[in-house]
Amino acid sequence: MRHFKKSHLLIGVGLVWVALSRIFQGEHTLELATADNTAFTTSVGDVAASIRGNRTKSSAFIYFFNPIRAAINGFVEIIRSIISVPSGNSIIPVIGWFGVVAIVALAVYATSKLRTALLVVSLLMACGALGMWQFTMDTLAMTIASVLLSLLFGIPLGIWAGLSDRVLKILTPFLDLAQILPTLVYLAPLALFFLIGTASATIATMVYSIPIAIRITAHAIRNLNQSPIEAALSMGSTPKQTLTKVQLPMAKQMIILGINQTVMAALSFVVIAALIGAPGLGKPVVDALIIRNVGQGFVAGFAVVFVAILLDRSTSAAAKAQEGFIPMTPHQIRGRRIKRAIAGLAAIAAIFASRSVLSLAVWPGSINIAQQVEDVTNHVTKWVTTNLYIFTVGFKDFISNWVLNPIETLLAFSPWFVTMSAIVLIAAVIGGIRVAMLATGLLALIVLSGLWHEAMITLTQTIVATLLTMSIGIALGIWVGRSVRAERIVRPFLDAGQTLPAFVYLIPMLGLFGPTRFTAIATGIVYSIPVVVKIVSEGIRAVPVAMIEAATVAGSTIRQIITKVQLPAAKKAILLATNQGMIFVLAVVVIGGFVGSGGLGYLVILGGSKPDLQGKGLVAGFAILLLGVTIDRIAQASARRT
Amino acid sequence: MIFSQRRRIATASIIAAGALVLAGCSSSVNDTAESAKASSECGTWAMAMHAWNGYTASAQVVTEVAKANGCTITQTTLEEAGVTYDAMEAGTIDVIIEDWGGGRWKEWVDRGSVVEVGDNGNIGLIGMYVPPWMAAKYPDILDSANLNKYADMFKTSDSGGKGAWYEGPPGYTTIGEKMISANKLNYKAISTGSEAALVDVLTKAEANKTPALAYFYTPGTLFIKIPGLEQSRVKFPANDWSDAANASGLTDYPETALKKLASKKLMDSNSVFATIVKNFNWTNADQNSVAADIESGMKPAEAANKWIAANPDKVKAWLGN
């Protein structure tokens, strides 16, 4: 075996696959009409129905799920009544908009620079001016609630995993899984147990953000300089003392950085959480998708981006403030105390003002530029969709006919055992026997679920979107990796692309490509390009300068340097980027079920609204998970093996 | 540069905020709170919002009438059916003003969380439509028996070699696949995802004289915008709807009297909102007139109030017991 090149083996597998696919086209494809159930999906549906029917009767609900739901709901409502919704008998929240702006500004000012505080103020005011004040506050409340709960569980677990190898080993698969899991998947199961509403949304957000808190905390504890710890232990400190007096203080800055990442993860969930009733900025975005008002979607989308920048800057400023082990001089400490005292007094005054003056309590309706932003966006989109429609549809048709359809024919319209064997063989060549066995198990489960055909349709879209993403992403990544100026130009777009919710540009994509599979693919590309470009450009930049100089001295052209030196050296980064890109793409491609992409995502969405297909939707969600793990393991193996 | 600009904007906004403090000092929050409390007997209720324009029209009119009578109404956009019934069970939704599903809420009604409140007066009819230019050019296309003859025309790059059958969004009542198999049609159902996408498909097809076969329904304003569309509904063999649960033989959509559903909590209350919901009833033409205003860019509340002002008698009837 070993003397064959891997690429030859892969080509061989591909050729046999295509040949068999041609011969047995359309046989044993395991196609199942959308409205039909299998025995398995019916029984899952029955279980779901009985769970739903027992919500008021079964003790699991009365003593477990319902109290959790009530507690979380209550917690979120308290935070909301402070900053967002009218509290008690009043018609205003405890703190009006002016008070919130003041508190945030002064808190940031007290922990970091004036410049950051001013930035934060202008971002908050911009959200208000976009007519999104209350949605923004709801989002802040949801984010604060889920981050606090995530940290409450995440930091202790992270510390534990940092201290104990066994705990880390047990937790790691779950952490991996949570990061692969497309967000759409676990909404329905959560809603089944916690109903639609803030509780489900908060828990869903936590599933997404806890792993990050755990990971970074564990990492922080594990990567400490060991000598102070050894010193403490040798001087007779108990493990507890060592933890609280040495390890935690040393890891503090890293842990605060983890808080920043946890906040960002929680925030990236706000839009999709609106699907299960979360209050906040996701609501106008999802509404906009449904009524297809691009402008409205962007207005809310901008507010999401503003909140993202706001939270990122203020939490990372707090992390930086922890820097340095040099103790402050008494003079500095006094200066800081005075600064904080003044800030505190000013905040109290502002809160008082925001409670007694209506125009400082409720954002004044006269300051609202939402309509203008909406109109401009809608005009631009309308122009683009009417004038470029011919081109975009042409491009869509080209990709559909020459890339999408052939791959779909190969994957979804070959007999299932042919496709499955081919994927397993590819996994074996790329990742070895263990990965192949894992793939066999996972794919067999998909076959047993009865949704093989739909899974292959989703896989096709994921592959096509990844191919397109990588061809754009590698090119951009090389450019950004080779030129500082390019990075400066591209960086803001990458940052915006990573924070702007995919739902926002799903709407214009729908206008450009109609209700088709390609709409989902195009959205997936936009969503995953930033991460691919980041990883590839870092890989290119990490190529040792000496290698490039040597090549230059030897008379290589720029093209030769890129293709012969930088790309091969950055191969690992590229494969890693492919892996990440695929996971990102999968998460969005399934959301494409909303815009006519079919596949597993459509079944998940359908299951949410058609009671007789609820079981099928839940099974489809599980199949997405299986597919995600399969893709991830094969792609990871290919990155590891180089 | 960017920073100094940001700083300038920020400084400007702080000054603006300061100005607002001074300007706003005259009005006191507590006075307003008192007056709001006085008329709050009706209570706060949540209206489910579904994703089609006609629904928005009905829901907004009910909302505006309720508001005028001292109610506080919140609106929440949700998918049709199960999701919303669950929300009613959880106590976060009180009213669905237009439900198309024939009794799919039974499970929730049996559990006592959802109450059927009767017809809302609108008659719904779903169907498969072709753009009017096709109906004019190929008159026999309106008989489902001839659809296969034209299947090639409806092919797209997404329809797998068959005719593209643009199906309603996931949340809607759809039986396209069953219609295709029951009538042995060489078509593939493609989900569209939203009302707007359906509007888009049919509007573009009529404007560009391209073929399309798409799901649509009345009441709907699209029939005003595309003259002749209402007559371009493809007729399928009639079928027996007495056994809707066992739907294997379904071949076409029936006319449906659209229903109102409410939470038990609302119906048990003595709130005037319960009365309004119970009595709300209007015609397809009424709904279309409001929906058309919304579609032409009027804000839903504005359009609803315009209709309310023009139809005082109807509104008065909803308020009486």
Which SSEs are present, and which pair or pack?
The complex is a heterodimer of chains A (642) and B (321).
Chain A: H1 6-23, H2 39-53, H3 59-83, H4 97-111, H5 114-129, H6 133-163, H7 165-180, H8 187-194, H9 198-222, H10 226-234, H11 239-267, H12 270-273, H13 282-291, H14 294-321, H15 330-356, H16 358-361, H17 370-412, H18 416-431, H19 433-449, H20 452-482, H21 484-499, H22 502-513, H23 517-541, H24 545-553, H25 558-569, H26 571-591, H27 599-609, H28 614-640
Chain B: H1 2-24, H2 29-38, E1 44-49, H3 53-68, E2 72-77, H4 82-90, E3 95-99, H5 106-111, E4 114-129, H6 132-137, E5 163-167, H7 176-182, E6 187-191, H8 195-208, E7 214-218, H9 222-225, E8 255-263, H10 264-268, H11 272-279, H12 284-295, H13 300-310, H14 312-319
Oligomer: heterodimer
If classified by CATH, what would the architecture of the largest domain in chain A be?
Orthogonal Bundle
Q: β content of chain B, as a range?
A: 15-25%
Q: What value does the average pLDDT of chain B take?
A: 82
Q: Outline of chain A, from the CA principal axes? A: globular
Low-confidence stretches of chain A: none
Helix content class of chain A:
over 70%
Largest sheet of chain B: 4 strands, antiparallel
Largest sheet features of chain A: none
Order of strands across the main sheet of chain B: 3-8-4-7
Helices of chain A, by number, come to 28
Strand content of chain A: under 5%
User: Structural class of the helix and strand makeup of chain A?
Assistant: mainly alpha
Considering DSSP H and I runs of 4 or more, what fraction of the residues of chain B is helical? 40-55%
Task: Find the count of extended strands of chain B (DSSP E, 2+ residues).
Answer: 8
What does this protein look like?
The complex is a heterodimer of chains A (642) and B (321). Chain A has 2 domains: 9-20 and 38-50 and 373-640, MetI-like (MetI-like fold); 58-368, MetI-like (MetI-like fold, Orthogonal Bundle), CATH 1.10.3720. Chain A is built from 28 helices and no strands. The relative contact order of chain A is 0.11. Chain A is mostly helical and 642 residues long. Chain A has helices at 6-23, 39-53, 59-83, 97-111, 114-129, 133-163, 165-180, 187-194, 198-222, 226-234, 239-267, 270-273, 282-291, 294-321, 330-356, 358-361, 370-412, 416-431, 433-449, 452-482, 484-499, 502-513, 517-541, 545-553, 558-569, 571-591, 599-609, 614-640. In chain A, helix 4 packs antiparallel against helix 5, helix 5 runs antiparallel to helix 14 and helix 6 packs across helix 9. Chain B has 321 residues and is an alpha/beta fold. Chain B folds into 2 domains: 41-122 and 256-319, D-Maltodextrin-Binding Protein, domain 2; 125-255, D-Maltodextrin-Binding Protein, domain 2, CATH 3.40.190. Chain B is 43% helix and 18% strand. Chain B contains 14 helices and 8 strands. Chain B has helices at residues 2-24, 29-38, 53-68, 82-90, 106-111, 132-137, 176-182, 195-208, 222-225, 264-268, 272-279, 284-295, 300-310, 312-319; strands spanning 44-49, 72-77, 95-99, 114-129, 163-167, 187-191, 214-218, 255-263. In chain B, the strands form 3 sheets. In chain B, strands 3-8-4-7 form a 4-stranded antiparallel beta sheet, sandwiched between helices. In chain B, strands 1-2 form a two-stranded parallel sheet. In chain B, helix 3 (53-68) crosses helix 12 and helix 3 (53-68) crosses helix 13. The longest helix of chain B is centred in the first third of the chain and has 23 residues, at 2-24. Chain B is globular, with a radius of gyration of 24 Å. Residues 1-40 of chain B have low confidence and may be disordered. Classes of the chains: A mainly alpha (642), B alpha/beta (321). Chains A and B meet through helix 2, helix 5, helix 13, helix 15 and helix 16 of A and helix 1, helix 2, helix 4, helix 7 and strand 6 of B.
